[in-house]
Specification:
Structural class: alpha+beta
Low-confidence stretches: 1-5, 75-85
CATH topology of the largest domain: Heat Shock Protein 90
Helix content: 55-70%
Radius of gyration: 37 Å
Mean pLDDT: 76
Distance between the termini: 80 Å
Strand order of the largest sheet: 2-4-5-7-6
CATH architecture of the largest domain: 2-Layer Sandwich
Largest sheet: 5 strands, mixed
CATH class of the largest domain: Alpha Beta
């Protein structure tokens, strides 16, 4: 009879205690931690947290005593049982730890996501800036070619202008994305070299590409090879004996794309691959490679007496 009469008392007290604990959970998680802990006001947070625990304890004690008083006349409740419920206040410690941990973990996830987004934004901004620096430099060289041809051969200059319009179309419409087809880049380079052959009488250019590369839809960052081609065209002019040459090859193996560009060079011209050859275009390209591939690429520049070569390996 004694146990049965104690059941209503235990039920109401348990309900009251859990309501207080739930309130403690939400107050700490959504009020104290965001407003004080995350803002570095740790002293105020600890003081308010202690007051929250003490206040919750007082509420539980008041509710327990009140229920004991109003039910004492009708229910034979063991007072020692009433006191045992106060041991449940120890639950407040794991509640505080749990809520704080959850909030900190949630904040950590959000901060990491925000940092990642900021890094991606900074990376995209820098890559766009580097690419925009390369394109005007390339167009400037092309316009100089047109200027020279207009004086020498107006009809040929007209043909060059038509090809130049194709270049602009490629840049504006087909090359405005983060990735472009390798075949498009090869066609772009081919047209560029053909224009140089038209402008220069003693220049021979060749492009070798494995048939498998043409058949596959291989995507890569746009204008990743342009600076090397510009560099080859610029310094192949220094070759004084015989015909100048530019030889380019594309090969693939083990998931890697191997690009090689070799050009003639004046033997009297002593160059340091880490200094004079590292102009704006090459510097920007190297920076793009670092941002895009980090340690997953290889770039080797070799300067010989009569030849300058670039070998680039990137994953595909």
């Amino acid at each position: 009879m004694k146990t049965e009469l104690s059941d209503p008392y235990k039920t109401y007290l348990h309900l009251s205690v859990w309501i207080v604990f739930v309130c403690m959970f939400y107050i700490n998680m959504y009020l104290l931690i965001p407003r004080f802990f995350f803002k570095g006001r740790y002293e105020i947070y600890i003081i308010l947290l202690i007051l929250l625990v003490i206040g919750s304890l007082l509420i539980v004690m008041y509710v327990s005593n009140y229920m004991h008083v109003i039910t004492a006349a009708n229910l034979k409740v063991d007072k020692r049982q009433n006191m045992n419920f106060f041991n449940g206040i120890l639950v407040s410690i794991p509640i505080i730890l749990t809520t704080t941990t959850l909030k900190l973990f949630n904040r950590w996830i959000k901060d990491n996501k925000r940092i990642s987004e900021l890094k991606n934004l900074a990376l995209t901004t820098e890559l766009t800036s580097l690419r925009n620096q390369i394109q005007p430099h390339f167009l400037f060289n092309m316009l100089n070619n047109v200027k020279a041809l207009i004086r020498k051969d107006p009809e040929m200059a007209t043909e060059v202008i038509i090809k130049l319009s194709d270049f602009l179309r490629y840049q504006l419409y087909e090359n405005d994305n983060d990735k472009t087809l390798l075949t498009g880049e090869i066609n772009f380079i081919t047209n560029f070299l053909k224009l140089e052959e038209i402008r220069r009488d003693h220049l021979k250019t060749t492009i070798q590409c494995e048939p498998e590369l043409v058949k596959k839809n291989i995507f890569l960052p746009p204008h990743i090879f342009t600076a090397f081609i510009e560099n080859a065209i610029k310094y192949s002019l220094s070759a004084t004996e015989g015909t100048s040459f530019i030889h380019i090859s594309f090969m693939a193996s083990d998931g890697q794309l191997h690009f090689e560009c070799r050009n003639s060079k004046d033997p009297k011209l002593a160059l340091n691959p880490n200094k004079k050859y590292s102009g704006l275009g090459l510097t920007n390209t190297k920076r793009r490679l670092e941002l895009l591939y980090q340690d997953d690429y290889q770039l080797n520049i070799t300067v010989q007496e009569t030849e300058y070569s670039v070998k680039l390996t990137i994953p595909i």
